[in-house]
Write a structure and sequence with these properties.
InterPro entries: DNA/RNA_pol_sf, Retrovirus_Pol_polyprotein, RT_RNaseH
Order of helices and strands: HEEEEEHHEEHHEHHE
Strand order of the largest sheet: 4-3-2-1-5
Protein name: Reverse transcriptase RNase H-like domain-containing protein
Largest sheet: 5 strands, antiparallel
Number of strands: 9
GO molecular function, one term: hydrolase activity
Oligomer: single chain
Number of helices: 7
Mean pLDDT: 77
Strand content: 5-15%
Pfam families: RT_RNaseH (PF17917)
Keywords: Endonuclease, Hydrolase, Nuclease, Nucleotidyltransferase, RNA-directed DNA polymerase, Transferase
């Protein structure tokens, strides 16, 4: 029994070593010498091309393309055509060389000539039977109707069921300027305003909660990166409501606004740079207001609830 276990373990170790050697040799294989006129394929995993590799069944390579210039042993220039949407300079690590030997399966891949479909009748045209008139209906002779003929009555256009009774308009806020200003800003405490002679109480309350678990990568982020990722993700989820509207972001993390509006030449990390690229087009409509965490309790109400008893 022990010998059989040792034998199985030895087989598993040898298979793992062979796989490791294959990967090692693949990463350290010599650079293929390329010359002008060679045909190469672009590996879309290493060099993405817009419009390609959008699904699981799409090809993983594009091409083949001709090498028109060898810039160095590591970089070449390809002939991509006039309608190319990417640059024509590539690294040899992004390409697969097409074999220079003739393709042994070229004849099999050619489209076979399909046999002609046999005719169902003789070459002479079979005359069609004359149309028999229907009682009370004229026979169409293929001529245009006269101008004084009565046109067919048009069908009545009806709105779909789910759009009936829907009125397109612009939502207007009634009241004075003080009331509009109070709605645009954060409401720290309950306020009472007079609107058209009616006493109205304004109170800030959440209308939607949005949350998810952090990924293993996000758990390693610092507080600034995590807050900015949270804002970018939430804005993308509510984009159909927030795009083009004046949005006030109330946060307990004061550096959030300056990180997005900063113009200093100091480079940010890749995480902050991606979030800035998503939010910068909407910065003209964003306003950041800082609120201390002790007073910012309604946003974190769900996460601060005590766990339910078992």
């Amino acid at each position: 029994m022990a010998d059989e276990r040792f034998y199985d373990a030895r087989l598993a170790i040898n298979a793992a070593r062979l796989e490791q050697k294959r990967r090692y040799d693949k990463r350290r294989q010599p650079i293929p010498p390329l010359t002008v006129g060679d045909k190469v394929y672009i590996r879309l995993r290493d060099r993405p091309v817009p419009g390609l590799l959008t699904g699981k069944i799409d090809p993983r390579k594009a091409g083949s393309f001709r090498v028109c210039e060898v810039l160095s042993p590591h970089r070449v220039r390809l002939d991509l055509g006039a309608d190319a949407t990417i640059g024509d300079e590539f690294s040899v690590e992004q390409l697969d060389v097409r074999p220079r030997s003739p393709d042994p399966f070229a004849d099999d891949r050619d489209e076979p000539e399909l046999p002609a479909v046999p005719a169902l009748h003789d070459e002479e045209e079979i005359p069609s039977a004359p149309l028999q008139p229907v009682d009370g209906e004229p026979v169409a002779d293929g001529e245009y109707l006269p101008d004084d003929a009565d046109p067919a009555t048009s069908r009545t256009r009806r709105v779909p069921d789910h759009l009936r009774g829907f009125q397109v308009g612009v939502a207007a806020i009634a009241g004075n300027d003080a009331f509009r200003e109070a709605l645009h800003g954060p409401i720290y405490r309950s306020r009472v305003l007079e609107v058209d002679g009616v006493s109205t109480e304004l109170r800030e309350r959440p209308v939607a909660f949005l949350s998810r678990l952090t990924s293993p990568t996000e758990k390693k982020m610092v507080a600034s990166e995590l807050e900015l990722c949270c804002l970018a993700w939430a804005f993308a989820r509510f984009a159909h409501w927030l795009e083009g509207a004046a949005v006030t972001v109330v946060t307990d993390h004061s550096p959030l606004g300056p990180m997005l509006s900063s113009t200093t030449p100091i480079p940010y990390g890749p995480t902050i740079a991606r979030c800035r690229a998503l939010l910068l087009p909407h910065m003209t409509n964003l306003r950041f207001v800082h609120r201390a965490g002790s007073r910012h309790t309604n946003a974190d109400a769900l996460s601060r609830l005590p766990p339910a008893p078992p």
